Amino acid sequence: MVRNEVAVVLGGGGVTGIAWESGIIASLKAMGIYLWQADMIFGTSAGSFVGAALASGYDMQQHFDHQMVVNPDEKTGVASKDIILAWRDAFIEGGTDAEAIERAMGNISKTRQPQISLAEREAVAKSRLETLAFPDHFGAVSVDRDTGKTHVLTKESGVSLVQATCASGAVPGVWPSISFNGIDWIDGGMVSSANPLLAKDYRQVLVIAPLPIGYGQMSSTQEEVAELSKTAKTFLFVPDAHTKEVVGKGIYDADRAPASGQAGWDQALNVKDEILAFWRA
C-alpha cells in the first residue's frame, strides 16, 4: 500500500464498544479483510485499546475470543446523573466551539473525583492491551484539558502505550486524567466520539463508531463522515438495532461485553458484500 492511502478509525464506546469493534474486525478478518494493513490506525478512548492490538499485528480472532469472556480486571464505571448534567453544561457553555467544550470538560476533570485511582486505571489498561509495545502506525486520540486541543499520541510522542491509552479514555468524572509531557490529558472522544476527520488526508477510510450520536450543537459521526466523504472513499459502521438492544445504557458494564462482541461479528456479516466491495476498491 502507498502511504496515506488507507486509514482505519476506531471510536469510543466503553467496554461494550471494545467488544463490538473487536467482533467486527474479527468478522472482517474471516472474510479476508485484514485491517492491520491500513497505513494508519486512529483509536479514540475504547478504540485506542482495539487499535493498539490491531496495529500491532495481533491475531484479532484471538482478541475477539478474549472479549467473549468477562475480564475480571475490569472496573465498572457509571456516569452519575450529576456528571451527565455537568457534561450537558459543558456543551451548552461551549456551543459550537469544540475546544471550548473540551476546556469545560477539563474543568470537570479537575473538580470531580474520579471513581478509581490512576494506578487502578493503569492496571485495567494493561489488562486490556495485547502488547505494551507502541505500534508504528497507530495513534491514540486525547485532549489537553487546559487548552482543549486534540492530539494524536504516537510512538514518536515519547510516552508508553499504557499512558497513551489511559489518556485517550480518561472520561471526566469517571476515570482519572493522566499527566505527561507537561500536559494533563482527558478522553479524546467527549466531543467527537470517533474523530474521523483526523483521517482527512487518506484516500480510503473505514470508521467503526460505537457512539455516533452528536451532542449539543456538535456534528454526529455520520455528519463528520459525510464531510470526510467529500475527499475520501468512506465506509461507516454504527450499531444496528440488535447491538443497541444488547448494549443498552451499560457501555461500562463488562458483563455485556460478550454479547456486544457477538453483535459486532454478526453485523459485519450482514454487510459482507458491501464491505468487501469497499475494501477491494
Short description:
By secondary structure, this protein is an alpha/beta fold.
**Proportion in β-strands:** 5-15%
* 3D shape: globular
**What's the helical proportion of residues?**
40-55%
Tell me the structural class.
alpha/beta
End-to-end C-alpha gap: 13 Å
> What does the average pLDDT come to?
95
Written as H for each helix and E for each strand, in order along the chain, the element string is: EHEHHHHHEEHEEEHEHHH
* Number of β-strand runs: 8
Give the uncertain stretches in residue-range form: none
Number of helices: 11
Largest sheet: 8 strands, mixed
Radius of gyration from the alpha-carbon trace, in angstroms: 17 Å
Helix/strand layout:
Blueprint: E1 6-10, H1 14-31, E2 40-44, H2 46-55, H3 60-67, H4 81-94, H5 98-111, H6 118-128, E3 138-144, E4 150-153, H7 161-168, E5 178-180, E6 183-187, E7 204-208, H8 221-228, E8 233-237, H9 241-247, H10 257-270, H11 272-279
Parallel strand pairs: 1-2, 1-7, 2-3, 7-8
Antiparallel strand pairs: 3-4, 3-6, 5-6
Helix pairs in contact: 1-2, 1-3, 1-10, 2-7, 4-5, 6-7, 9-10
Characterize the structure shown:
With 281 residues, the chain is of the alpha/beta class. 43% of the residues lie in helices and 14% in strands. The chain is built from 11 helices and 8 strands. Strands 1, 2, 3, 4, 5, 6, 7 and 8 form an 8-stranded mixed beta sheet that branches. β5 and β6 form a beta hairpin.
